[in-house]
């Protein structure tokens, strides 16, 4: 093996590590709000519907930026966009600690969401720039497992920092870490010059019209599947900490510890899920996703009807483990359906579904809780979404078509 090949191999894993850490920070920065909103709720005297607005405000801009972010990633490459995104969202993470009212906090969180909205598609574009096609699904699953680890770190870091520093200084401290990561990307994240030249040439000769992606039934089914799964994901993440404090009478440090475990298990499950998907479920991904979501829905229902706190925690963990099946399919299957030239935009479409769910879930659940006074009713809303996600996964057929630069229709196996 040539030295240049070894250097290239090392470079792609350095890039993957940086993208992984970028996702960790991204999730940490957004997830700490789910813990911080407990003291914020008291300081600003907010009811559940107002809390839902705060938790949802980030997602309205985050969702809106997915497709534009994907288009921009395809146009300029991942490096510039990743660096800009992290710097932008870190700035508004700091500003979150300076909020003086409900309105100011909502506006800051919307602007924060714009910065984070560029990162998902840019990171997936980075995978396509550094890894050959046969390695991208595994690399993508490994990178996206960071979402669960970031979700685990959120409560673990936020709870003690809030007790130690207060919620305002917590946001400032985490924002500073973001700018340190910007420096790391600046110095160590560099796609090969030759790759960049090839990319430019391909963009000139192999363009994928947006209308081709919008007309692709397979991608839209993945969008719906991931949207409904996202309702469960963000509904849980947003409201479980408050539920445990107000209904199960736990203190904020205990909530931080308990809330980190399901996300941590989900991260390891995602890595394992990606391996199983690539090894045993090629061309049968829909059954893998549907089976995982069906089990997720069953364990969610069992959690709702359980009186025991131990049972609630066990079922909560199982929900996150089996939800990882859908997660792996949602971020791996598009790499098989789409050409490299369309990965950024295609992933933007898929992630728009999940982030639209991030906007809808907290606010809908907040209004349900305000209207009924019942957390159980709000959680049954998540059960219905689990059923929808299962149906969407099963609806993917061989007749669904994928997009190619030459606009040829190739059946999805």
Q: Main traits of this protein?
A:
mainly alpha, membrane, globular, Growth Hormone, Chain: A, MFS transporter, two-stranded antiparallel sheet, disordered N terminus
Query: What is the arithmetic mean of pLDDT?
Result: 82
Strand order of the largest sheet: 1-2
Major sheet summary line = 2 strands, antiparallel
Principal-axes shape call: globular
Please give the share of residues in helix: over 70%
CATH architecture descriptor? Up-down Bundle
Q: Name the CATH class.
A: Mainly Alpha
- The share of residues in extended strands comes to under 5%
> How many individual β-strands?
2
Radius of gyration: 21 Å
- CATH fold-level name: Growth Hormone, Chain: A
Subcellular location: Cell membrane
Membrane topology: Multi-pass membrane protein
Organism: Sporosarcina soli
Pfam family, one: MFS_1
